[in-house]
Amino acid sequence: MAEKFPSPAIPGVIKSRFHQVLSNPKHARIFHWGRILTITGGAQVIVQGLGIVSGILVLWLLPTKEYAWYTVVNTMLGTMLILADSGISFGVMSEGAKVWQNKNKLGAVLATGLHLRKKFAIGSLSVSLPILCYLLFHHGAGWITILLISASLVPAFYASLSDTLLEIVPKLHQDIIPLQKNQVTVSIGRLVISGLTLFIFPFAYVAVLANGIPRMFGNIRMYKIAHAFADENQRTDVNIQTKILKVVRRSMPENIYFCISGQLTIWLISIFGNTTSVAEVGALGRLALAMNIFTIILSTVVIPRYAKLAENKNILLKRQLQIFGCMMAVCIFIISITWLIPHQILSILGNHYENLDIHLLFLAIYGSCMNLLVGCIYLMYTSRGWIINPVLSISISIISTIIAFYLFDISSIKGVLLLNIFLSSIQLVFQGGYSIRKSMRVHS
After folding, report:
1. N or C: at which end does the chain have fewer Cβ atoms within 10 angstroms?
2. Could you give the number of structural domains in the chain?
């Protein structure tokens, strides 16, 4: 029998069929999203993986007391950045989405946002630093240590002032690769500096500084990335400033309140618990950092596209449900993995925390998933420039917090974690209802 060989026409047929598939708009859209999500997701796996390794390295190398101080400092840094922003990034995203194709106008929006952010930073520092000093002193830090820790915050705080605003520009243009490369470089820098310094100097201020220095270099690179699409010679625009401040005025009261409530777990343990409890809550929080990959993919790829959608009720509602459904699936997956291998997950934290209750791990992960869902909804509606009436939102938050204080023992880690889940559930219902209501009122 004669031996059969593949027909040389077959590769041509395959190539033709492949082009037919790509020419179909639906298939092309799937390939497009697959490519973007693969690039972003792959980079974020690296970034978050390096972040987790850095975090675990800090967790292993710092003594319990030093790690407790490190936890307090990171919590306060988050508060300082929220106060320095006060809704400016929402205003820049909302205004930038309207003019993203015009380099001059986008440059004016960015310049105005950066100008406002610097002004707000002064107020943030004046409020936050005294509180930080008190909490560190409360947990046994000496004045020299407090001064060193406060000084070590400067690089990270300074870089973060502009980072979040500069990133909006490439996100609007979906120029993802340079953004991801920059984040990977910063993460590698943090891991290298942490590894080289903490083995010799296992102090909280060294760990904070190791986080801040690479961010400074990354910030310089971010300026170049952003100004490829936004004219750096533009000055502050009064009209744009008025529009951004309108968003700030409505969001600032809520931001100030959520500076407290958003970090309530650490605040309550810092005030009512002991130093060991602070370290344990901080250690559990390290595990929750793995979820940042989904938040960053959401804010990098999905939210800018959602912000640019036309004012169409049906489209907005459909996209909202699709985005939220995907995040729900992610949360179910994370909780399932935690339930299946809790001991293996706890072993990552090292010898200092090997005796932590498995139930505390599950509560911490569940609470982080709830916060992830609330954050998903929050990012969606604020990207459209929609801001909840602060009187209503703060009133609901205060009432639910008072109720939670009566329901849970806030002097224990378990009680504080349950309180976090309770408050997140209230916010999920409230903010989800608001987002749907605003979409329903859009005129198609």
Report:
1. N
2. 1
